[in-house]
Amino acid sequence: MEWNEGDLVWFDPGLGHPLPGEIQEVHRAAQVIIVQAVINGKPQTFTLSLGEGNLQARQDLGSTGVDDMTQLSDLHEASLLWNLRLRYDRGLIYTFAGSILIAVNPYKMFPDSYGLEVAKQYAGRPLGSLPPHLFAIGAAAHAALPSPQVVVISGESGAGKTESTKLVMQYLAAVVPGGGSASAVITEQILEAAPLLEAFGNARTARNDNSSRFGKYLEVYFKQGAIVGAKITQYLLEKSRIVTQAPGERNYHVFYELLGGLTEAERTKYGLLEAEKYFYLNQGGSDCAPGRVDWESLQGAMQVLGVSENEREGIVRVLASVLHLGNVYFHRRQLRHGQEGVEVGSDAEIKWTGHLLQISSEGLMRALTTRITEARAERLHTPLSIDQALDMRDAFAKALYSGLFSWLVSRINSIVHKGGTHDAQRISILDIFGFEDLAENSFEQLCINYANENLHLYFNKHVFKLEQAEYARERLEWTPLRGKTTSR
Ligand SMILES: Nc1ncnc2c1ncn2[C@@H]1O[C@H](COP(=O)(O)OP(=O)(O)OP(=O)(O)O)[C@@H](O)[C@H]1O
């Protein structure tokens, strides 16, 4: 290829990845070209020998890039990223790749982009006829009913999945023709379920102040065009966080919201102190401020969802019990016959937990310090070591909290899913935790990454299969990904 001044190119000045540049000078006699690239906002020039630097022609994307990646003529990782970058710099955070929407997290709100008026513009418009937007995905899913639709939202932690899920839901709530007041109530309840689930299932992590620590599959049901119900399925709540947190991270938001919002009288009633005093809340060394939602708003969300006062009291009791349990400590104790066991350091926390859960404190103490084995008709109490007792305490706290979380999800479902939806149309939204590679990876990261791998595998198979079927239908030639022959 003959290069000329002003040609747009991809070149690699030895970085191991291509840069977008523009040829400034061509010195054919010396076989040298000078290319300029803008790096971190500063123009820099590179002198390359002709034939060096893996020069490739670069498409002119103008100042705002193309809004569908399929319009790119030079298609490789660098050109895809460059297009996203150009758009992002102009505040255009959404880009299509065919029927897939890529969203780049702006980390700042664009309130004008998500109003009712914008939602209405997208309603009923085919995908691609308006600029890329989450509402376009909502509109496409809605238009494709009655066949069941799933919006799969995928990306690493902090990418913006949860916010995107809420926006798709907001779109459906805003534009789906009203089905009377019953539909309006159920729609409000579905929207109110989001902050409630976030309080109990989200936490501050090193990557995201509001990271979802569970996977969520939300099915929204429609009849005669109106929303008639929803169902939430939750996966894999991260249990280790209830008892331990990595540096800079926190426990689930609800604990800090609870302690920041209780009145003095309520604190006394549940035997609670300020958040800094609880081992389960202060291991990450992060602050213990109440956080995103205040306790009062959370109570409001529970009210909208019909959670009774009695049930709310039960929720506080379980949360307070988890906190009390975390402060239980043990001493080594010499038993008879030279055996070693443990005893609880202070029984105040055990008494509070017993009182709040309405179980016997003595039984709880025994359960935390001994293991019961049954052999024939005999029950043997084997004393635990300190480490085993701590594990037992933590396991109990984890079971209590995850039981509460599962109960909450089924309680929400009992309100937003009244049954009778077997013949309803549905749009589902999958918001599942993204890939994680932390300084220390545990069993939870294995499960999260395994779930992601499978999702990607399914997604790739599905998308490529569909694409190949379309090629076959249109009798286009293509090279199957793993095959050597060109098919017709
Ligand atoms: N469309 C958006 N507009 C503005 N800010 C956004 C948008 N999407 C995400 N954010 C910001 O990024 C933060 C992280 O986003 P979000 O919690 O949705 O990520 P996530 O992919 O669900 O992460 P995780 O897997 O950790 O739950 C949000 O709290 C919000 O501040």
TrEMBL record:
Residues reported to bind ATP: G155, E156, S157, G158, A159, G160, K161, T162
Gene Ontology biological process: actin filament organization
Q: Listed GO cellular component terms?
A: actin-based cell projection; cytoplasm; membrane; myosin complex
**Keyword ATP-binding part of the UniProt annotation:** yes
A Pfam family annotated for this chain is Myosin_head
InterPro entries from the UniProt entry? Kinesin_motor_dom_sf, Myosin_head_motor_dom-like, P-loop_NTPase
Query: What are the protein's GO molecular function terms?
Result: actin filament binding; ATP binding; microfilament motor activity
| PROSITE patterns membership | MYOSIN_MOTOR
What family, per the record? Belongs to the TRAFAC class myosin-kinesin ATPase superfamily. Myosin family.
Name of protein: Myosin motor domain-containing protein
Source organism per UniProt: Lutzomyia longipalpis
